Fold this protein.
Amino acid sequence: MNSTRQADMTMRWMVFLAVAVIGLFYVKWFPYYNKAFLAAEHHSIGNSILMGTSSAAPAPSWDAALNYALAYGKAIWQAMVLGLLLGSAIQALLPADWIARLLGRTGFGSVATAGILSVPSMMCTCCAAPVVVGLRAREASPGAAIAFWLGNTVLNPATMVFMGFVLGWNWVALRVVLGILMVFGLGYLVNLMVTPKEAEAAEARIAELTAKSAMTDSDTPNAFLRWLEILTRMAIRLIPEYIILVLALGAARAFLFPEIGPAIGNEIWWIVAFAVAGMLFVIPTAGEVPIIQAMLALGMGVGPAGALLLTLPPVSLPSLAMVGGSFRLKTLLFVSASVVLFGIAGGLLAVALKF
């Protein structure tokens, strides 16, 4: 590698790391550090975004849709911008073969690495989606990308702290045990779904990207202009469908959660219903904590609460749409159904353990 190309690559890495570290510090790490003290002192991190201070979600209407979209957007817009910046930077700034070599193989190693890398990111499922799109575009294996996506929310250490102070540390233990199984187990199973032909093609693509990475600087387009181009394309493709689905879910809150109170007990049908609703609905990071706190205070059973604990954070209808072009439909259906099953398991365990 000549000195000019080496200097260019060093600059790319420095910019990428600066965006990642400074961005995460400003958007996630520092605010969550302060919020942890709020949770410890008040045993609360705010009102439920699902229903505010009311005892039920608002009736379906344009106002319900708009109010939820505005509240949700206010909570996540900075993280969404960061997610788009990182997702595009992965494709434009990092060496062409770096992600493929780190996360491209279909064994458990790539899944474990991706799951561990997700922990400090701490994004909500929609804000992590552009990063997942970037990882897949740089040939991360399906299982590794899924592990990174799910790990952002399910293994978020800040959420665990909030949860412990607000709901109790027994809920944290439930989330950690089932969350680890979800992130690393589903990632591994998704990689097992890769056919031998697809695995062979992935290895060939890794070799191709390695050769591309060895190109001279004169053969490589300006990385920062390419970053801007990819960022623009991602924003144009992902943001409109995302806004439409958030509006739709905001309006449909009363259908997904028609009743909150003592009438919702620990029967299996309630656990299943809330597991499905939680998988479809979209919330900001740690939004499940005040939602579950409010529902339990209104007398809802711990079974449905346990289901929401495992299904509200990891996926949602908008985030599934955002990553839809990066995975086979079969893979996303498998992940969605598996998240629901984990939610049912969480609900049943919460009942069995007398939470």
In short: Residues 3-352 form one domain. The two ends are 60 Å apart (CA to CA).
